[in-house]
Amino acid sequence: EDQVTQSPEALRLQEGESSSLNCSYTVSGLRGLFWYRQDPGKGPEFLFTLYSAGEEKEKERLKATLTKKESFLHITAPKPEDSATYLCAVLPERGQNFVFGPGTRLSVLP
Amino acid sequence: DGGITQSPKYLFRKEGQNVTLSCEQNLNHDAMYWYRQDPGQGLRLIYYSQIVNDFQKGDIAEGYSVSREKKESFPLTVTSAQKNPTAFYLCASSSAGIPPYGYTFGSGTRLTVV
Predict the structure, then answer these.
(1) What is the pLDDT of residues A41-62, one digit of tens each?
(2) Which residues of A65-89 are buried (b: 16+ CB within 10 A; e: fewer)?
(3) Is the bond preceding A8 in cis, omega lying within 30 degrees of 0?
(4) Are B56 and B48 in contact (CB under 8 A)?
(5) Do A103 and B42 touch (CB under 8 A)?
(6) Residue B40 Rama label (left phi>0; alpha psi -120 to 50; beta)
(7) CB within 8 Å: A44 and B103
(8) How many contacts, defined by CB atoms under 8 Å, are there between A and B?
(9) Which pLDDT value is given to residue B98?
(10) Which residues in chain A are contacts of B36 at CB distance < 8 A?
């Protein structure tokens, strides 16, 4: 069965304190791994797509990386406005639909 | 601006009542999806549609129904058969193609049973 887990469940950082979020997946084959950001009471917002191991994508303070078993979302010098829940989703090779992880709730304190 | 509009933002359902959640997109996307989000769980797929007049059940379709009469619209009905409907409901759309593309999500509808 295809599965996605994310850790930690929640993370509290001080402003400027860099850290990483983890997304581990078990799928028969990977067509793509996707990161989303979700603010409270809103729909997820697309951040990155990664298609193959070794690939990296960057956007402002965020950098996503991918290996054959997991992806990391690195947050460099975070600001309070980076506080949100970050969702990871994978699209298996043999499936039509995404498998979502439960998310990591990030709080960045000023 | 293109996007997905979900309405209403908040919805209250009485026992035994059917309610319909609206989802409209102007992105010219072929595929549309309905997800349910509960605290501490990943998004779970209720129904999806790849083309007009066709839709498939997702992982948790029991107690829900949909229609796809227009490309832009994909309403979800929560029937009285759904015993635990209190949740945050998200509609999404995507374009077909290779490589696979991410979803565009609506802002969600929070449904509460009263």
Answers:
(1) 999 999 999 999 999 999 999 9
(2) bbeeebbbbebeebeeebbbbbbbb
(3) yes
(4) yes
(5) yes
(6) left
(7) yes
(8) 57
(9) 65
(10) none
